[in-house]
Amino acid sequence: MGNEQQTIQFDEFRKLDIRIAEIVCAKDIPGSDKLLDLTVSLGDEERRIIAGIKKSYSKEKLVGRKIVVVANIAPKNIMGFESRGMLMAAAIYMADGEMDGVALLVPDGDPKPGTRIT
């Protein structure tokens, strides 16, 4: 909260492949109280995203939800699983400044999975 961020050029922003995804499966990750193993549909493909949203969202309430993801972020190994994307979420803070959870960014209306955000 309140961190100064570096300004980027528009061409750098355009490199991000930000798309609508639909969560098709959500599983626990053994040994983690923060992470969930999500399978998301980007329309023409499915991929795994490991996300630290377990304290804010139950697996059951995630399946079928549409979210916003960065689809072209480099794969990253998280707790032995390859994550191939990053979901977009806003941090929620308590009055004392402590983080209290996250709120997923979700699309308005009903865009199809894979729709690019421009």
From TrEMBL:
Its EC number is 6.1.1.10. Residues 12-118 form the TRNA-binding domain. Keywords: Aminoacyl-tRNA synthetase, ATP-binding, Cytoplasm, Ligase, Nucleotide-binding, Protein biosynthesis, RNA-binding, tRNA-binding. Pfam families: tRNA_bind. Its main location: cytoplasm. It is found in: Cytoplasm. One of its GO terms (molecular function) is methionine-tRNA ligase activity. GO terms for biological process: methionyl-tRNA aminoacylation. SUPFAM superfamilies: Nucleic acid-binding proteins. It catalyses: tRNA(Met) + L-methionine + ATP = L-methionyl-tRNA(Met) + AMP + diphosphate. Gene3D superfamilies: Nucleic acid-binding proteins. Homodimer. Is required not only for elongation of protein synthesis but also for the initiation of all mRNA translation through initiator tRNA(fMet) aminoacylation. This is Methionine--tRNA ligase.
